Amino acid sequence: MKQDASRNAAYTVDCEDYVHVVEFNPFDSGDSGNLIAYGGSNYVVVGMCTFQEEEADIEGIQYKTLRTFQHGVRVDGIAWSPETRLDSLPPVIKFCTSAADMKIRLFTSDLQDKNEYKVLEGHSDFINGLVFDPKEGQEIASVSDDHTCRIWNLEGIQTAHFVLHSPGMSVCWHPEETFKLMVAEKNGTIRFYDLLTQQAILSLESEQMPLMSAHWCLKNTFKVGAVAGSDWLIWDITRSSYPQDKRPVHMDQACLFRWSTINENLFATTGYPGKIASQFQIHHLGHPQPVLIGSVAVGSGLSWHRTLPLCAIGGDHKLLFWVTEM
């Protein structure tokens, strides 16, 4: 008997608003729980969640909001800083957002009296991706519909600026070699830049448009994944600049691609909210079919838990969590 891969979320958390974006903190913050941030129409919520997969005495999910940050405008993207620490006194919460007004906001909080944010201005169109440098957290990279990738320091000064051939859709920093940056463009080209020489060192081609999302596999940095058109695509950058594997995945159009943080063969994709409700899928490279199909009427954002095979998606007034096997 074939197990039906389609299922509802394992856990949900109710929210006060439609959730546009959700991000687990990918860095170890020195606490047993997991920091998660999600963005709505005009605020960002930072919370802590623990799952029964990690602690036996928890039933399902334990969630607690730590702080709500007023944002004043719709939140489009969230990136965590590796400087975030819950085991320091006072604690440090640090993240940045991209917003509908084309600005980046850098938030710093001690979860008590100190709550500051700095505005980084320069993009002239929507910002599609942003990320902190994973080692020191002293720089932020962003890509935009304005055909640029920009590097900023925490003072808001641009330290580098790459002109792209089409809208920039995704940006990823190498986990170890922090002078290497991956930038994915809507025209199907993915380029790797050396930030020391500010030159492109390698490029990949999807041969499909529009490329909407790409992600560097942090468990194995020879692997890059993306969604373009209605397909997912995987590259092995040591072998070819063309995809090694690809498969149709979302009927209307694929939207997001994210590798699991713990398994180099596990990844998730989402499609645009369309005629079908099953626009969230988890895939394993060893399986011809998706290993999990999540039915979610409307969904935004996609993020993997740092240590579990568990995915979060934002929904209509809720966060949705799916768990899969390794």
TrEMBL record:
- Specify where it is mainly localized: nucleus
Q: Name one GO cellular component term.
A: nuclear pore outer ring
Residues of the signal sequence?
A: none
Q: Which Gene3D superfamilies match?
A: YVTN repeat-like/Quinoprotein amine dehydrogenase
Q: What's an example Gene Ontology biological process for this entry? A: protein transport
Per UniProt, which keywords does this protein have? Cell cycle, Cell division, Centromere, Chromosome, Chromosome partition, Kinetochore, Mitosis, mRNA transport, Nuclear pore complex, Nucleus, Protein transport, Repeat, Translocation, Transport, WD repeat
Designated name of the protein? Nucleoporin Nup37
Species this chain originates from: Leptonychotes weddellii (Weddell seal)
User: What taxonomic classification does the UniProt entry list for its organism?
Assistant: Eukaryota, Metazoa, Chordata, Craniata, Vertebrata
